[in-house]
Predict the structure.
Amino acid sequence: MYKQMTCPECGKEYGEKLTFCISCGARLICISGEIDDDIKTQENNGNAIGTDCYTDITEQGKTAEGLNQRKNIHITSNSGVIPDINELNPVSDEMEYHETEDKGFAALKIESRQKKNIFKRLGINAVSFGVTILMFCFIIVTFGSFVGRRLTDEKQINEFINRTDLLRLPAAELSFVDKDSYPIESDATLLDAIYTMSEGTGISKDNIRNIYNDSTIKDFISNIIIGYAGYIRTGEQPEKLTAEKIKQVYTDNIGMINTMIKAELTEHDINLAYNEIDKTSPVLDSISAEKLENSMISAWITPFRLYISTPVLVAGTVLTFFMLIILITVNKDVKKALKWCGIPLIISGAAILCLTYLVSMRVMFGIIKSESVKMLLHSISEVISGEMYLTGACIAVLGILFVFLPGRVAGTN
């Protein structure tokens, strides 16, 4: 006698004590049993070999209430070949399944495996969610470092100066304008203040604007800002700005000023301008790099310098890609990992686009009281908004591709 249970779904074989497949949960069928004595006799006589094979069925077990009854399956083959178990119909009328106490045991095992898979999937999703949050943070940090480096770039500063009309700055917020000695109105601009202070020299407001645009004054201001930007970026202190240097710039442009006003400045006019420049010495001294190092501003200059440094930019980029590697490792599927990765990309790209829009359209300027700061921020947004829009759009589109088109991005697994 030999007994064997086989799964009709996956083909796995088990002993006679199990009636459900542990792997897939299907009912097992019995394909073995006790061979009849008549067949044994025929086999001994050489008449039944290779012609007919079947399994006799015997009932075993308790009979009182029909519990734990075992019924074997009778399988016959008129062709002389034992039928393939995979061709058997598990629900056909020619077979009956074992129903034993092992049914509950197998069901519990299947249920336990299903719960284990559910908890495993939840754990993977929780880890993936945490990694996507970290990825979003690294993307924003990296982008901020990139913007900081662009703002302190020499080319961007020159463009910023060309786009910014410094003559429209409110004179009331400029500490170097002598508002006590001249009748300068509270809403006057820097252009109005210079015109008032130059009264009697024959210089008009148009002359002042032309002098500002065509002289070396704009280049001088650009070099000053570039020097301070380099100080913020690298820590190298710029050359100290003094009243003597400003007077030298004024002296170099006297010839052009005379051409603009179609007259020559008198010595009294030139000395008057020198005296006004000398009054700015305390202000110039307060904004020197040495003073800034010893002031409260140094508390944010050093962290900002570190933030826009190359190592931070590189580290942020590397960590972002490292988060993608973690997602691939955890999910064990490139397509799923790319979908998880696409979420922070879409959110960060959308955040960059929204922030750029709010700054460029001056939506957030209502909370800023200083008109000078508003003007400077608007000029900065005009300089870098194009790059920010492009960067944010690229990041968002890449995220959309990762989420909705994983097959085209990652290929087949």
Notes: Confidence is low (pLDDT under 50) at residues 34-102, 409-413. The longest strand covers residues 5-6.
